[in-house]
Write a structure and sequence with these properties.
Largest interface: A-B, 21 and 28 residues
Largest sheet of chain A: none
Structural class of chain A: mainly alpha
Radius of gyration of chain B: 18 Å
Shape of chain A: globular
Number of strands of chain B: 10
Structural class of chain B: alpha/beta
CATH class of chain A: Mainly Alpha
Distance between the termini of chain A: 53 Å
Distance between the termini of chain B: 44 Å
CATH superfamily of chain A: MetI-like
Strand order of the largest sheet of chain B: 6-7-8-3-9-10
Helix content of chain B: 25-40%
Number of helices of chain B: 9
Order of helices and strands of chain B: EEEHEEHEHHHEHEHEEHH
CATH topology of chain A: MetI-like fold
Number of strands of chain A: 0
Strand content of chain B: 25-35%
Radius of gyration of chain A: 21 Å
Shape of chain B: globular
CATH architecture of chain A: Orthogonal Bundle
Oligomer: heterodimer
Largest sheet of chain B: 6 strands, mixed
Strand content of chain A: under 5%
C-alpha cells in the first residue's frame, strides 16, 4: 500500500468531497419537496392526482438511475432543454454548473419517488383519531395536515428518511459518468494520473464512509431526542 | 317551523357500512341547554349516531340540521359548523407532539383569530376550571388518562362551541379516574352547556341527563326523562339492557 500520492493530490479529494456533499444536499432537498408533494397527491381524494403520482413513483422506481441520468443529461439537451450555465458559480465550485444541475435534477427526481412512499407510509401510520380531533375542531384538511399530521408523520419516518439521505450520498457517485467533478470523479482522476488502481479508490471509499456513518449516527441521535416527548 | 330552541335536528338519519345497517332512520331533536344521554348495548349505533352529528361519519341518507342549516347538504363550509360543535373522544386524541397549551390554543388562534396572548389567557382560565393549570407546559404523554381527557374537554371548550359531543369519554379510563372527568362534565352541564353524551355511566345518565335516549339496533328504541327510563322502562329491550347494566 502506497498512499504517498495524497501529498500531491489531497486537494482533489477535498474538492470532490465538497461537491459530493453539495450535490447530495441539493438532491435531497429537491427529492423531499417532490416526495412530499407526490405523497399528498397519492393520498388525495381525486383519482387523477392519485394516478399521476402512482405512475411517477412506479416508473422512477422501476427504471435504472443511470438511464434516468442519461435521459436528462443527453436526452433533454438533444431536444433543446438545457440548464443555463452560470459561469461564476461554476468557477467558485470548480464545476460546470449546467452539468451539475443535471445531476442534482436526476438524483432529486429519483429520490423523490422513494421519499414519496416513505411520506405516504408515515402519514398513513398517524392515528386516524388525530385527524378526527383536528377536523372536529373545525380545522380544514390542509391545516390538519400541516399542524397535526405531517409533524407526527415526520417523526415516524425519520429513520427511513435518514436512510434515504445516506442512499443519495452514495448514489450520487453515479454522476461522475457525465463528468461532474464530485468525489468519485476526482478519485478516478487520481487513479488515472498515478497509475495506482487501488489506493485512490480506497481513499474515496473511506471518505464516503466518513460522510454516511456520522450522518446515520446523528439521525439516530435526533430520533431518540424527538421521542422523549412520547409515551 | 324552526323552534328557536332547537339546536340539532336529525331527520331519518341512516348509515350503512357496506351491507351493515348501523343506523336505520333516526329522527330526533336536541334543544339548547339540554343534556341528552345516549345509552344502549354495544353495536347499537350510539357512537356512529354521535359521529354523524358533526359529520365525522357521512350519513348514507337523512339530514342533520344544525342551527337551522342542513349540514348534510353539499356546498357549504362544514368546518364552520364543526367549530361550534366540540367533540370529546374515547381515546382523548390529544396531539402528542405539542404541549398541553398548544393543544388548546392552536385551533382558537388559527380559526377564531385570537392573538397568542388572548388564546393563552383563555386556555389558562379553562385549565384552572378543570384544576390543571400546572400542566400547561406538559406533553400529553406525561399525563394520566383522566388528565388527558380533562385537557381534551378544555381543548374543545376553547372553541366556545354551542354544543359538546361526548363519545364514551370515560370508557378508556382506569376506574379511579372516571370520577374526575364526570365531575368536569357535571359542572359543564350545570353551567347550561348543551351536551350530547354517549356513555355507559348509568349514574351520570340518571343524575345529570335531562333526557335519556335508549338505542338498539340502529334505532331509538325508547326515550324519556331519566326517572321514566330508569324506573319505569316500557320497551322490553330497555328493560333487558338496564337489568344487565344496573346490578
Amino acid at each position: 500500500m502506497n498512499f504517498s500520492f495524497l501529498g500531491k493530490y489531497w486537494q482533489f479529494y477535498v474538492t470532490g468531497a465538497k461537491n459530493t456533499i453539495l450535490l447530495a444536499a441539493l438532491a435531497v432537498l429537491f427529492g423531499v419537496a417532490i416526495g412530499l408533494f407526490l405523497a399528498l397527491m397519492k393520498l388525495s381524494k381525486r383519482k387523477g392526482l392519485r394516478f399521476i403520482a402512482s405512475a411517477y413513483i412506479e416508473f422512477i422506481r422501476g427504471t435504472p438511475l443511470l438511464v434516468q441520468l442519461f435521459i436528462i443529461y443527453y436526452g433533454l439537451q438533444a431536444i433543446g432543454v438545457k440548464f443555463p450555465d452560470i459561469p461564476w458559480i461554476g468557477a467558485i465550485l470548480g464545476i460546470n454548473f449546467s452539468d451539475f444541475m443535471s445531476g442534482v435534477l436526476t438524483l432529486g427526481i429519483n429520490s423523490g419517488a422513494y421519499v414519496a412512499e416513505i411520506f405516504r407510509a408515515g402519514i398513513q401510520a398517524v392515528d386516524p383519531g388525530q385527524t378526527e380531533a383536528a377536523r372536529s375542531l373545525g380545522m380544514p384538511h390542509r391545516m390538519a395536515m400541516r399542524y397535526i399530521i405531517i409533524p407526527q408523520a415526520i417523526r415516524n419516518i425519520l429513520p427511513a428518511l435518514g436512510n434515504e439521505f445516506v442512499v443519495v450520498i452514495k448514489e450520487s457517485s453515479i454522476v461522475s459518468i457525465i463528468g461532474i467533478a464530485e468525489l468519485m470523479y476526482k478519485a478516478d482522476t487520481v487513479r488515472g494520473n498515478t497509475f495506482q488502481p487501488f489506493e485512490p479508490l480506497l481513499v474515496a471509499a473511506f471518505i464516503y464512509f466518513m460522510m454516511t456513518y456520522p450522518l446515520s449516527k446523528l439521525l439516530a441521535h435526533i430520533e431518540r431526542r424527538m421521542h422523549t416527548g412520547d409515551r | 317551523m324552526i323552534d328557536s330552541n332547537e339546536l340539532i335536528q336529525t331527520r331519518d338519519l341512516r348509515k350503512n357500512f357496506g351491507k351493515l345497517e348501523v343506523l336505520r332512520g333516526i329522527t330526533t331533536t336536541f334543544s339548547k341547554g339540554e343534556v341528552a344521554v345516549i345509552i344502549g348495548p354495544s353495536g347499537s349505533g350510539k357512537s356512529t349516531f354521535l359521529r354523524c352529528l358533526n359529520l365525522l361519519e357521512t350519513p348514507t341518507a337523512g339530514q342533520v340540521i344544525f342551527e337551522g342549516v342542513d349540514i348534510t347538504r353539499a356546498g357549504h363550509d362544514l368546518d364552520l359548523h364543526r367549530r361550534k360543535m366540540g367533540m370529546v373522544f374515547q381515546l382523548f386524541n390529544l396531539f402528542p407532539h405539542m404541549p398541553v397549551l398548544d393543544n388548546i390554543t392552536l385551533a382558537p388562534r388559527k380559526l377564531r383569530g385570537l392573538s397568542p396572548s388572548e388564546a393563552e389567557d383563555l386556555s389558562l382560565r379553562l385549565l384552572r376550571r378543570v384544576g390543571l393549570e400546572d400542566k400547561a407546559r406538559a406533553y400529553p404523554a406525561q399525563l394520566s388518562g383522566g388528565q388527558k381527557q380533562r385537557i381534551a374537554i378544555v381543548r374543545a371548550l376553547a372553541m366556545e362551541p354551542d354544543v359538546m359531543l361526548f363519545d364514551e369519554p370515560t370508557s378508556a379510563l382506569d376506574p379511579e379516574m372516571v370520577g374526575e372527568v364526570l365531575e368536569v362534565m357535571k359542572d359543564l352541564a350545570a353551567e347550561g352547556m348543551t351536551m350530547i353524551v354517549v356513555t355507559h355511566e348509568m349514574r351520570f345518565a340518571r343524575d345529570v341527563g335531562k333526557r335519556i335516549l335508549f338505542m338498539d339496533g340502529g334505532l331509538i328504541a325508547e326515550e324519556g326523562s331519566p326517572s321514566a327510563i330508569f324506573s319505569n322502562p316500557q320497551n322490553p329491550r330497555t328493560k333487558e339492557f338496564l337489568k344487565k347494566v344496573l346490578v
